Amino acid sequence: MSDFQIKDKFYLDGKPFQIISGAIHYFRVIPEYWQDRLEKLKNMGCNTVETYIPWNFHEPKKGQFVWDGMHDVEKFIQIAQDLGLYLIIRPSPFICAEWEAGGLPSWLFAEPGMKLRCSYKPYLDHIKDYYKVLMPKLVPHQIDHGGNIILMQIENEYGYYGDDAAYLEYLANLSRELGITVPFVTSDGPWGLAFKTGQLKGALPTGNFGTNCEKQFGVMKPQMQGEQPLMCMEFWAGWFDAWGNPFKMRSVLKWNKKDFEYTIKNGHNINIYMFHGGTNFGFTNGANYYAKLMPDTTSYDYDAPLSEDGTMTKKYEAFRSIVKKYKDVPDVKFSTPIKKVDYGTIPCTKTADLFTNLNVLSEPQKSVSPLSMEEAGQTTGYIMYQTRLNPQEEAKTVTFKACNDRVQAYAGRTKVFTAYDKEITKGFHYTFPFTIIDGKVWKLEAKAGEQLSFLVENVGRVNFGHKLMNQKKGITDDVIINGHEHYYWDTYTLPLDAEQYEKLLTKADWKVQNATKADKNPGFFMFEFNADEIGDTFWDFNGWGKGCAFVNGFNIGRFYNKGPQKALYIPGPLLKKGKNTIVIFETEGLRKDSIRFTKTRKW
User: Fold this and answer.
1) What count of other Cβ atoms lies within 10 Å of the Cβ of residue 537?
2) 447 or 475: whose pLDDT is higher?
3) What is the DSSP letter of 69?
4) Fewer Cβ neighbours under 10 Å: the N or C end of the chain?
């Protein structure tokens, strides 16, 4: 058994140890590529890997845990150990990480009175239930148990959110009770009050920053708890992208090199965030909210040393050269054969309209008022609301009290408007006696007795900041039509999960026609092709509007013609020799009669 301690430096079995780490999120990489990404981390000169553990990834519904396939964190840890890599684990409850709700399960938002990231007992009880399952999986992998975990983080950037020291103590004490013995760390930006506020007595404070390392370490040092090692837990050598950004985010390599070398040369400790970003598969992306809602792209490339598809970049080679100046760096033989394949142009074979197949995919939940996504038992994806006007009443206006995040309104099957974020409820408030003042009232022009439909998309729950508590999705309050509250609704959940995908393939009314022949309402589009060889590829979604794509039933993520991302990465192991089925869900009426898979990507 080995021993890892924090004194004036890190000590491994009594000898000084400098942590040179890189972040790889197992939940953003298909398991078939874990070995490859970890081998490339070691080859760059890192001795440690860091990963978060997202709570909502492992407990999507209360008491229902998932630990297989992409969720098998123990397998990821074991592969790292087999390669001789140590591991920093950053478990839930909150991770940020540009991940849906920062890792917090959506079912927490459905619980009345819930308070997050503080000593609110029902919240703590849920954490305890989760930790009782999670921690026993981590305990055997600790370094003093023969494993490779050397550090565990308590919470994440808590100094930016709250000041409940008792909450941090609870997490630490609960972890100890459940068998965690390795040293604890916290991580916060070194600026202002965040660094001090986020600290926990007995846990090593670490900093998160991407430039001016010499200065930032200088800011941290007087705020430490005595003579302790300095560590940048998140060295931002790149940055993430949001839909609607005018260009892909890039760092300045010469600044990266300068800061990275300063840290290594001076014996400080570093974790590159991200070494390899990976992909926000499915609906797992988070969002940020400052002046407006900014959902993150499907690609979590992060301008990292190792690109989204595992390519070693100029940044990778530069960092490897720097480490080699000061450390012995192994030449690792990569064991996973990976190639890229151009599968060419694939024509559309079938289409299926959402309205026609709504009752095939989902059974309506009837209620007096609309149900939020969480109240309907749904986590991510889309949700459809339908109601019928009174036989004697035409609809002229509709006002939403509260609705998140993006709504498309239909009178019959004719789209009337699309509204996003603040556009939906801009300026809506009441004054006595309940007069609508300056509300955002949308023109509806629906005939008497007509069916109204509202398709709402959860574009990604906010993962950072104080809007974290306000992340209910769908229509979350009553809807006002012609100035009065309108009641009686059918709510259709559309998570587009494995169960719904199977219904779509086997029970939907598919029409044999080209994509451009279908009406412009939301719909599904099928493409089939035979593959003689398997390799990574990219779908260039130029000419398509907004939606998500499935490869042999696996949701590879969202696409949006706003950019900056212009292609979706498809890892080869998702494909198979022989017949492959691609299904695209598109909501804007912007389609092409074919799709193209290429072996080169563009942004």
Assistant:
1) 27
2) 475
3) G
4) N
β-strand pairing of 20-24 with 15-16? unpaired
Residue 427 CB contacts under 8 Å (≥ 6 apart), including other chains: 437, 438, 439, 440
Q: How many residues does the chain have?
A: 603
Residues 6+ apart with CB under 8 A from 358: 384, 492
The residues, ordered by sequence, that sit 6+ positions from 164 with a Cβ below 8 Å of its Cβ are 117, 118, 119
Contact 588, 545 (CB under 8 A): yes
Indicate if the pLDDT at residue 432 is higher than 60: no
**Tokens 């169960």, located at residue:** 499
Output the pTM of the full model: 0.96
> What is the pLDDT, as a whole number, of residue 206?
98
Q: How far apart are CA 258 and CA 213, in angstroms?
A: 9
Asked if 116 and 108 count as a contact pair (C-beta separation under 8 A), the reply is yes
**pLDDT level of residue 561 (50, 70, 90 thresholds):** very high
Task: Please name which of 312, 314, 315, 310 lies closest in space to residue 336, comparing C-alpha atoms.
Answer: 310
Closest C-alpha among 391, 455, 467 to residue 588: 455
How many helices (DSSP H) and strands (DSSP E) are in the chain?
A: 12, 35
Instruction: List the one residue out of 569, 103, 43 whose CA is nearest residue 275.
Output: 43
- Count of beta carbons in the 10 Å neighbourhood of residue 325: 11
How much of the chain is in helix, strand and coil states, percent to nearest 5? 25, 30, 45
Phi, psi of 517 (to 5 degrees): -85, -20
Q: How many CB atoms lie within 10 A of CB 419?
A: 20
Catalytic residues: 157, 234
